Amino acid sequence: MRQLNSEFENKSIQEITTWQIEKYKAKRRDQIKRPGAVVGSYKEPGMDGIEKEVWYVEYNGDGEKRIRKIFGPDQLTAQAFFTRSNEPLRPASVNRELALLKHIYSKAIEWGR
Question: Partner of 85 for a Cys bridge, out of 34, 49, 90, 102, CB 3.0 to 4.6 A?
Fold first, then answer.
């Protein structure tokens, strides 16, 4: 919803054209899942007093906010998440967004807007 809103926020339903939707689809397919993703680690004391390494992946959230997903001592899972974060969006993700837009159109017609 966030992506649709940022793309079409200043347009009424009647102003959104097929060409704009196709342009949106192409733009979204070229975007990566989590822009600005970085993997890192830090040390913290464990319950037993022994220092342990904690792995995380940090990426851009809404606006200026950074999101940190913590994986604990599991470096392989953090690396796998990081790798998936830098892949392009899958077509199914874009299709779900477009299904939501279609639903909004259907409701607008049903409600006479």
Answer: 34
